[in-house]
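Q: Structure for this?
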Amino acid sequence: MSKITFKNNDGNSKTIDVENGLSVMEGAIQNDIPGIDADCGGSMACATCHVYVEEKWLNKIPKAEEAEVDMIDMAFEPKKNSRLSCQLIVSEELDGLTVTTPKKQS
Amino acid sequence: MKKTDVVIIGAGPVGLFAVHQLGIKGLNAIVIDNLDRAGGQCIELYPDKPIYDIPAVPECTGEELTKNLLEQIKPFNTKFFFNERVEEVKKDKDNWIIKTNNNNEFTAPNIIIAGGVGSFEPRKLSINDTEKYEGKSLFYSVQNKDEFKNKSISIFGGGDSALDWTLELSKFSKITLIHRRNEFRGAPHTLSEIKKLEVEGKISIKTPCQLESIVGDKNIDSILIKFDDGRTEKIKTDIILSFFGLVMKLGPITEWGLNMNKKTIEVNSENFETNKKGIFAAGDICSYPGKLKLILSGFHEVALASVECFKRARPNEKYRFEFTTSSKSIQDRLGKK
């Protein structure tokens, strides 16, 4: 289990325990985190699980593949620290990860 | 009002295979889809991506899968209603009356909702108050090229649609291509064509930047874009073309009185019927304990749903389970001798 924190636009945040090996998106869906739609179910085809990763974590998570970056082009208000949460796999190294959900997903 | 045995909502792989499973049982179906062609997510989201988990098909793309499914259901001469969305579903004794946004009306004892995650719509620009320009000087697709002649056009996006339309429209209009990063995603040939046009000064490319605001009254006069380094630039613009892909919206489905679980419809996994008799859900849109959002699961779901559809459509006939290898009547329906 690792702790993942989701902040939203209003500054509210919720921390959940996610089993290692699941994606951040799956953790969010299981815990009813608002602002994560994940319409395509994690096939990197929709960009509705888009999150902003807190700066200090950017170097600790594996870099986005080209296909993910291409998909982020389609996301709502992408930024430098944009990632698709379906591609972030939870592990002990990610314990404490904080992400912010965008204003909306679509 | 058109009569049929089953109205299928959604022409993705699961909707297409539903046609097959109903067809071999001698049931007629019609298919309605909001897109302009069959294939659903397979065609819209990953036409070129290989799929590796279709049984007995080691590898195929979304496009190939769609093509093969269409081939498989050819014998049934199914009527498709594309570019149409089902707006209303009403009960009429043992039948359902289905109305579309194109004023088509159907009546059938069964409906199979194979709607994926809902109908596809273009992803809109993220800044406020853009609706007033939509269809006049802001477009999410190109229907008629002639409307885009001799204009100053700002095209947003970094994928195939943005690149292809930049090439095409640059023949007779002034194009600015705007993208949030320096890399574009397109066929090598297209990318080199784009580069060439830029070098020749025939198009202008602005990266990495995003739309900051639109200046205009009834029509767009200009746009303001903001680069990553904070710099802004004003670009005279008559028309904005925005290509940020598609989003999926459930739409009117939520208003039909079906038991929903988040964005999915609850079904029993015996026959994939919803809480409404004669309305079934299959594929990504249905949920039941253990549900997996796989194409192969959807195939199984419509096979079982089709049995219940038969019982409702032919209440006076006995349903007999048959194999395609040995059933004379199935082979007849498939046009095999």
